[in-house]
Design goal:
Elements (H helix, E strand, L loop, with lengths): L3 E12 L6 E12 L3 E5 L6 H8 L7 E6 L2 E2 L5 H11 E5 L10 H11 L6 H11 L14 H13 L5 E5 L7 H18 L2 E5 L3 H4 L4 E6 L2 E7 L3 H9 L10
Parallel strand pairs: 3-8, 3-9, 6-7, 7-8
Antiparallel strand pairs: 1-2, 1-4, 4-5, 9-10
Bound molecules: adenosine-5'-triphosphate.
Adenosine-5'-triphosphate binds next to strand 2 and helix 1.
Length: 248
């Protein structure tokens, strides 16, 4: 099996045109290996979400290529891309995006049901156990704490047993202690199941749970570090400040 879970090559994403054009990503090359946890950081507007969206096939690059495993995304039709996202990629966002009228269990299997895929019961049992929600399966999201709701969203992202999980500020709406629980859970998903996690975060402490920290600035990779630690990350971020340059 290929050791690369995700690879992007010469990735550029430009929004708008003429005087208003913004180069959100500027000729980026990066690889995320299988079984690793990477934090993507950088000032506001540096291109973090754009990198996540294009690498996950939610947005098409202006130029450059993206691979999920052996599959190159630009060659795929919209329907094949949708299937790849459903089968091989999980998403976790700051907003939990749970359906209030459904139980925890129904929320977890909803994407599979919508896709007409039969859930793998053994795997789901493992996932529910891992996120610690066994006693809450029949509850509604409104009866859960924020951290528990995010754990439901994590279980939902894991349900299809994806190769890669992309997270955009997964702890942004959580208090420090609850955030730590969610980060330990993401860490365990990588360590116990060999899945690949790519997480955008502003929080140096959250990033310290990752194996690797990639720092973006002005749509480019400014730094790429192995477990730099929260203090070093905070120091590097303090030197970058918000995005100031724009394409004209
Ligand atoms: N749909 C869009 N249309 C126009 N410009 C956009 C669009 N999406 C993003 N941008 C611009 O692209 C640049 C990168 O945005 P992106 O959201 O990727 O940054 P980010 O690092 O995730 O920022 P933040 O930390 O504030 O979420 C910014 O200048 C942003 O204004």
């Amino acid at each position: 099996m290929k050791t690369e879970a995700v690879r992007v090559e010469r990735l550029t994403r430009t929004y708008g045109g003429g005087d208003q054009a913004v180069t959100a990503l500027d000729d980026i090359d990066i690889t995320f290996s299988r079984g690793t946890f990477t934090a993507v950081m950088g000032p506001s507007g540096s291109g973090k979400s754009t990198l996540l969206q294009t690498a996950a096939g939610l947005d098409r690059p202006t130029s450059g290529r993206v691979w999920i495993g052996d599959t190159e995304l630009s060659r795929l039709s919209e329907s094949k891309l949708t299937k790849l996202r459903r089968d091989r990629i999980g998403f976790i966002f700051q907003a939990f995006n749970l359906i209030g009228a459904l139980t925890v269990e129904e929320n977890i299997v909803l994407p599979l049901r919508l896709a007409g895929v039969r859930p793998d019961r053994d795997w789901l049992t493992q996932v529910v156990h891992r996120v610690g929600l066994g006693a809450r399966l029949k509850h509604r999201p409104s009866e859960l704490s924020g951290g528990q709701q995010q754990r439901v969203a994590i279980a939902r992202a894991l349900a299809a047993r994806p190769d890669v999980i992309f997270c955009d500020e997964p702890t942004g709406a959580l208090d420090t202690q609850t955030a730590a629980e969610v980060l330990r859970l993401l860490r365990s998903v990588v360590d116990a199941h060999g899945q690949t996690v790519v997480m955008v975060t502003h929080d140096p402490v959250a990033a310290s749970y990752a194996d690797r920290v990639v720092l973006l600035a002005d749509g480019r990779i400014r730094d790429d570090m192995h477990q730099p630690g929260a203090a070093r990350i905070a120091e590097l971020l303090a030197h970058l400040g918000p995005r100031v340059t724009q394409e004209v």
